[in-house]
Amino acid sequence: MISLEDVTVAFDGFTAISNVDLRVEQGEFVTIVGPSGCGKTTLLRTIGGLEEPTSGRVRIDGRSPEAAQTNADIGFVFQQHTLFPWKSALENVTFLRKTAGNAPEADAARALLRSMGLEGFEDARPKELSGGMKQRVSIARALHLDADVLLMDEPFGELDEITRDELGVEIRDLWRRERKTVVFVTHSVPEAVFLADRCLVMCGQPGRIEATFDVDLPEPREEDVFGTRSFQEQVAQVRQTLHENYA
Amino acid sequence: MRSRHLAIVGDVVYPAVALAIGLLCWWAVAALGNVPSFVLPSPTAVGSQLLENSALYAENAIRTLEKVVYGGSVGVLAGFVLAVLVAYLPWFRTAVYPSLVAVRVLPKLAIAPLLLIYLGTGTTTAVVFIALITFFPLVLNTAAGLDRASSAHHELLRSVDAGFLERVWFVDLPYALPDVFAGLKQSVTLAVVGAVVAEWVIADDGLGFLVLIGSENVRPDVMLAALVVLLLEGIALYGGIVLAQRGVQQWLGFGSTGRR
User: Fold this and answer.
1) Which class would CATH give A2-73+148-244?
2) What phi and psi, each to the nearest 5 degrees, are found at residue B39?
């Protein structure tokens, strides 16, 4: 479980997020959507301990983010894949777990790559993989940590729309199987609605959570959800809230 | 496959033919052009000079190699340490980096006579001189290389509470490798140039010294023979760096194409 109490993050006279309260339950999938510069990435980085709150408190299962980092309880996926070009896909997956101080399990890593549709690419270098495949590897790398919390910062931001949709379906499916606690930042409204149990709308500046939507969509969520009336109505609602608060 | 074999054969045959034509032209000008041998000795004269005095050339080749290896090692090690300080201590970088970049335009060979005053003649002075000139390319290339990894890579490691040393070892150094080797290649080339200059100005042995003696005695055959040995030595040293780079990068898992 993730909890933020009255969190403010300021850099040299600029307040990125102000007085944010948030609770994310164990096994919940929360998306944060908002325009560029609304502080959504700062919020995610603060949860993950990459930024220090100026005031307020962040807790992950009752501990500080730093303690959670030490325990390899946080799996980050960044917008850039951050794979090491000199390592194979498999080595990239096991490397982070090793660095986190846990024994890498090559079989488990292979199985993860297989489940992400990368069977046969275990020994490929990043330059031999497409953008979508690289991002799949970096998701597998985060999962291989066995962290309870997955923090994803616009992980599909550099991919084409079709690949984004495909990966969205895969991520939601993966979450159904693994029940991680996920916080997923995006500026794509359909993506935010499709993936979420709960979708937070952020606005700036300084960044705050403007509205919360409990998403109601059938499970399992497949591609056909995109075409349903219910999905489109919820997307329209979120979009309207975003535009009403656009600074 | 067939065309590939042909391409490889071509890679060997073409340069070999070009070299043979070059030697033939040299021989033709020297032998048929009626040029006196104290102006341009024929390739065969240079060859027999080499063979007849092989001990002399081998001995002096080793003297030169010693200077290059000792001086180069000191310069490269010092350069590496300084590059690490520049890369990881911001105040040190601010203080030192501008001077390092500025000194880059100075022709380092011009320091040699100064060293002669401070340290006198001898091998030690030559070693110091070579250390000085090999130091600069390594510092600048390595410092730039250690800066190459993105902050996202560093944050990935921070997100699992990896320490500073892990970051340097697993991320920064592998990213810097191509630059370190680029620096090494420049350093080794300069080291050979530096050894020759040192042997002219400060030392009294080595292949550079043979060139000097040959010049004073109007013996171009001696000079050319020394130059041939110098050339082979330079190629061997450079080739050693290339092989080392290939080995290290293959061990790390870089593709055979080398750079990232």
Assistant:
1) alpha beta
2) -100, -55
Domain at B215, CATH number: 1.10.3720.10
As given in the structure block, the two tokens for residue A164 are: 């984004």
**Mean pLDDT, rounded, for A228-242:** 92
Residue range A28-40, pLDDT digits in tens: 999 999 988 888 9
- Chain B contact set for A74 (CB, 8 A): 159-160
Residue B255 has a pLDDT of 54
- Whether B260 maps to a domain, the answer reads no
Which among A188, A183, A236, A215 has a CA at the least distance from the CA of A47?
Answer: A183
In order of A81, A204, B38, B42, B226, the CA distances from B45 in angstroms are 63, 84, 11, 5, 13
- Cα B142 to chain centroid, rounded: 16
Same domain as B122, residue B9: no
- CB spacing of B253 vs A127 below 8 angstroms: no
Written as six digits, the tokens of A98 are: 């090793």
Which A residues in the span 136-175 are in contact with B, Cβ-Cβ below 8 Å?
145
At B257 the pLDDT is 40
Residue A210 phi/psi, 5° resolution? -85, -35
A117 Rama class: left (phi>0) / alpha (psi -120 to 50) / beta:
left
For B105-126, the pLDDT digits (tens) are 888 888 888 888 998 888 899 9
Would you state the pLDDT for residue A115?
87
A83 to chain B nearest CA, in Å?
8
pLDDT tier for residue B260 given thresholds of 50, 70 and 90: very low
> Could you tell me the residue range of the domain that residue B12 belongs to?
1-35
DSSP letters spanning B86-143: HHH-HHHHHHHHHHHHHHTTS-GGGGHHHHHHHH-SSHHHHHHHHHHHHHHHHHHHHH
Average pLDDT over residues B18-43: 88
The count of CB pairs under 8 A between chains A and B is 60
Give per-residue pLDDT as tens, B174-200. 999 999 999 999 999 999 999 999 999
**Under 8 Å between Cβ of A23 and A177:** no
Whether residue A63 lies within 8 A of chain B, CB to CB, comes out as no
Q: Which letter, b or e, does each residue of A56-93 get, where b requires 16 or more Cβ atoms within 10 Å of its Cβ?
A: bebbbeeeebeebbbbbbbbbbbbbbbbbebbbbbbbb
Q: Does A206 touch chain B (CB under 8 A)?
A: no
Tell me the mean pLDDT in the region B217-221.
92
Chain B residues near residue A82 by CB distance under 8 angstroms: 150, 152-153, 156
SS3 assignment, position A247: coil
d(CA B161, nearest CA chain A) in Å: 5
Residues B44 and B137 in one domain: yes
Do residues B13 and B89 both lie within one domain? no
pTM of the model as a whole: 0.83
A70 interaction partners in chain B (CB closer than 8 Å) = 161
Residues B8, B84, single domain; the answer is no
